[in-house]
Amino acid sequence: xxxxxxxxxxxxxxxxxxxxSCNSGSNTTIVVPPAPPAVNISNLQTYTGLFSxxxxxxxxxxxxxxxxxxxxTNLAAIQVIFYEQDNCSSVIQEVSSNSTTGITLQAxxxxxxxxxxxxLCSNFAIPGYAGCxxxxxAQQDNKMKSLRYIFYYSNGSAGNASFSQCLxxxxxxxxxxxxxxxxxxxxxxxxxxxxxxxxxxNLPASAYQHRIxxxxxxxxxxxxxxxxxxxxxxxxxxxxxxxANIQYRALLNGNAATVxxxxxxxxxNDSFVAQATGPNLVGGSGLSAAIFDTNARVWxxxxxxxxxxxxxxDSSIAGSYGIANESTGSYYGGFLQFCSSRAKLYCVAQ
Length: 350
Fold this sequence. Notes:
Order of helices and strands: EEEHEEEEEHEEHEEEEHEEEEHEEE
Mean pLDDT: 89
Structural class: mainly beta
Largest sheet: 8 strands, mixed
Number of helices: 5
Radius of gyration: 25 Å
Number of domains: 3
């Protein structure tokens, strides 16, 4: 008696099937090749080529991110930053698309789509989480909650780039790229890979200085929370009129007013203040130049839990403040006063 073994290789519809049989029975092993890798978006031309483009500045596609240009713009890179917190603080990864010569984008509207989103999420990689399925799981595990796009211009300082609003949805306390219709990770060739809502960013045609000004008005520690403080910045008489349509955010601990590696300047005299090392400018480190020329108190909440109950309290509890004309770490913190007292705000261009 002997065994008669046969091996037969079949290729059906691009799948490799290995069939092994013998006189005592048969076993079938199906070997499915891995999905082809996503488009390499480290090349800026390749990445921007995935966006949906319309010559007019049409409204954004449903549940996608769109950036609009009023005139042609030369870009050297687009970077997407993933954050751990829902307000774009605590960077966990940066994904960049670069060009050595720069590319020109024509006026119009550029919107993400399923192809661009799948290519982006395929590049996600932090310890324990990788690819689109990893990005989806990272949100489920509260490791990733928001993101933003940064646009670097050709022939200019990388630190003077423009960045989009923080992509976050207060209704769900997060934002992410996945298939919301099925509550699952993005899949290649799927048409349902997007965001939980639509986002639109009006991209300036050239870089501008991200200025910091000190509010003309003094406030108690009841600022109306972060949103109220931001609104106070955007209605303050010291807010610069140019560039037009630039929004400002209060430099309060936890408010993610600044972006890593972006340069910031004093609105008083356009002097360089610092390149941000995180969401609180440089924290308690020193500045290259003071933000203001007057010895004014400015709310910051730099000291832990000294934030007037998240800036809604004007009682006798303590709030942390800095000094506006200091270039040492004292610009940011080291001082306490009652929340019923008054201080100004640092307001940062977005």
